[in-house]
């Protein structure tokens, strides 16, 4: 260990100074050793960082069980980011037994403190009935909280739930509104959903040009589900409509580059 002075007797003050110096220069082993010392002294920030080092194997051999141990120690003090990480460990079976009920418990603790990702994840568990009873209305509640913090996937999920009437009254107009919000954050499936709504006239005026544009943007972002729909649309569109749709697509892409 660096703190032992590489075979040379050092007093604790010199060792700590040496560690600080090496860590500041990017030495990952020194960063790990310094963090471990601080964590053992009760520094919550260092404990959280140490968990991350064990999880990623930086400066020390990867040890997910040790990571989970340190995340739990911090999570139990009420730190939301540690509660979220511990929930992720339970949801993925990393360093702990795979346990969705425990994942839901820790996501909830972080979600109640306003952590947007935890709110989304808790909504997902309620949607799928993992670790909790399946409850669409509860899923909507947590998606709504995450969406209010601009969580793009939660916004998309709210669009789906409003479009299908899951956990609330079906409302395609509101669905389109949520899809637009998610699309502004380049969520591919939200683009595809907007294309479908424009193509069908659900929740918005039917507009083949708009539909073609949204399908094009979805495809560019990696969504492969709309290729067939776009081809069907193309067959019934005039050349002028296609040109306009392609120009609109190019303009929107150019606008995104500037932002």
Structure characterization notes:
With 259 residues, the protein is mainly α. It has a domain at 23-77. It contains 14 helices and no strands. The protein has helices spanning 12-24, 28-40, 44-56, 64-75, 80-92, 100-111, 116-128, 136-147, 152-164, 172-183, 188-200, 208-220, 227-236, 239-258. Helix 3 packs antiparallel against helix 4, helix 9 (152-164) runs antiparallel to helix 10 (172-183) and helix 10 runs antiparallel to helix 11 (188-200). The chain starts with 11 loop residues before the first helix and ends with a helix.
Structure at a glance:
It is built from 14 helices and no strands. It has 259 residues and is mainly α.
Topology:
Layout (H helix, E strand, L loop, with lengths): L11 H13 L3 H13 L3 H13 L7 H12 L4 H13 L7 H12 L4 H13 L7 H12 L4 H13 L7 H12 L4 H13 L7 H13 L6 H10 L2 H20 L1
Q: What gross morphology would you assign?
A: elongated
- Give, in order, the helices and strands: HHHHHHHHHHHHHH
Largest sheet: none
The percentage of residues in β strands lies in under 5%
Structural class: mainly alpha
Low-pLDDT regions: 4-9
What is the number of helices? 14
Binned, the helix content reads: over 70%
Cα end-to-end separation = 48 Å
Rounded radius of gyration (Å): 25 Å
Mean pLDDT: 93
Q: Give the tally of β-strands.
A: 0
């Amino acid at each position: 260990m660096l703190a032992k002075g590489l075979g040379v007797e050092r007093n604790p003050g010199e060792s700590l100074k040496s560690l600080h110096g090496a860590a500041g220069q990017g030495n990952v082993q020194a960063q790990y050793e310094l963090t471990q010392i601080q964590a053992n002294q009760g520094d919550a920030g260092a404990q959280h960082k140490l968990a991350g080092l064990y999880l990623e194997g930086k400066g020390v051999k990867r040890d997910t069980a040790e990571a989970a141990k340190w995340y739990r120690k911090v999570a139990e003090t009420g730190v939301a980011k540690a509660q979220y990480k511990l929930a992720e460990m339970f949801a993925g079976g990393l360093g702990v037994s795979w346990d969705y009920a425990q994942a839901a418990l820790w996501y909830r603790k972080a979600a109640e403190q306003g952590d947007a990702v935890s709110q989304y994840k808790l909504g997902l568990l309620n949607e799928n009935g993992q670790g909790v009873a399946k409850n669409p209305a509860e899923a909507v509640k947590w998606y709504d909280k995450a969406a209010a913090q601009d969580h793009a996937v939660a916004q998309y999920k709210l669009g789906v739930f409003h479009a299908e009437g899951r956990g609330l009254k079906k409302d395609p107009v509101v669905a389109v509104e949520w899809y637009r919000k998610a699309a502004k954050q380049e969520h591919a499936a939200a683009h595809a959903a907007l294309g479908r709504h424009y193509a069908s006239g659900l929740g918005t005026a039917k507009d083949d040009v708009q539909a073609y544009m949204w399908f094009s943007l979805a495809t560019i972002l990696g969504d492969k589900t709309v290729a067939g729909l776009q081809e069907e649309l193309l067959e019934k569109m005039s050349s002028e409509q296609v040109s306009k749709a392609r120009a609109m697509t190019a303009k929107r892409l150019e606008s995104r580059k500037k932002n």
